[in-house]
Amino acid sequence: MNPELQLLISQEEIAQTVDGLARAINQDYRDQPLILVGILKGAFVFLADLMRQLQVPVQRVELIRLSSYGTRTRSSGTVQVLLDLPPQLLRHQPVLLVEDIVDTGLSTAKALQMLQQQQPASLRLCALLDKPARRQVPVHIDYLGCTVPDQFIVGYGIDWKEQYRHLPAIYTVQQLEADA
Ligand SMILES: O=P(O)(O)OC[C@H]1O[C@H](OP(=O)(O)OP(=O)(O)O)[C@H](O)[C@@H]1O
Ligand SMILES: Nc1nc2[nH]cnc2c(=O)[nH]1
């Protein structure tokens, strides 16, 4: 049976939030050529909207793919790297990591560590959502959209068992069956 969804952040609120984030990034980077790195799959919708609001010269858009939730609603605690970057790509370049949600922080911390190994000129994080209640490792978010409560989130690229990524707004999921 499909679970019940409750609206948390409307399409209009998401658009305003993305706009505010893009304005802050535009102001900070100005004419600096920037590399954007998005984390698949969850961040692909946010990345697509954010980058189209950027006025800074985006010299490259890259994607990495991490997974730690699978079909569950709690992190497995192990972050699998399913797609990495070619070596040396970020060396001496300003890089902005784009993430959909920082929850335990394990995925984002792993991504930051992977990117840092390539010795970028600078590395900052832009996250649409922050769920601080479940943090296991500290993560500094340079550009944050919204803080969300300790509930399971779906929509706007974010899934439950691969469903709901297509929804244009963000919802909390009610009455989820216990994880298998
Ligand atoms: O802070 P954390 O507890 O690590 O959770 C955050 C991560 O969890 C989700 O990815 P998921 O592993 O579900 O993969 P997906 O993006 O492909 O759905 C989400 O897209 C984040 O990348
Ligand atoms: N779908 C979904 N994935 C997540 N990964 C980390 N937190 C969440 C969440 O609240 N919802």
From TrEMBL:
Catalytic activity of the protein: GMP + diphosphate = guanine + 5-phospho-alpha-D-ribose 1-diphosphate; IMP + diphosphate = hypoxanthine + 5-phospho-alpha-D-ribose 1-diphosphate
Cofactor field: Mg(2+)
Any one Gene Ontology molecular-function term assigned to this protein's record: hypoxanthine phosphoribosyltransferase activity
Pfam families: Pribosyltran (PF00156)
Assigned keywords, A-Z: Cytoplasm, Glycosyltransferase, Magnesium, Metal-binding, Nucleotide-binding, Purine salvage, Transferase
Keyword rRNA-binding: no
Listed EC numbers: 2.4.2.8
Pathway given in the UniProt record: Purine metabolism; GMP biosynthesis via salvage pathway; GMP from guanine: step 1/1; Purine metabolism; IMP biosynthesis via salvage pathway; IMP from hypoxanthine: step 1/1
Keyword Nucleotide-binding: yes
Sequence ranges assigned to domain Phosphoribosyltransferase in this UniProt record: 12-159
InterPro entries membership: HGPRT (IPR050408), Hxn_phspho_trans (IPR005904), PRTase-like (IPR029057), PRTase_dom (IPR000836)
GO-annotated cellular components: cytoplasm
PANTHER family, per the entry: HYPOXANTHINE PHOSPHORIBOSYLTRANSFERASE, HYPOXANTHINE-GUANINE PHOSPHORIBOSYLTRANSFERASE
Family: Belongs to the purine/pyrimidine phosphoribosyltransferase family.
UniProt name for this protein: Hypoxanthine phosphoribosyltransferase
Organism: Lyngbya confervoides BDU141951
Gene: hpt
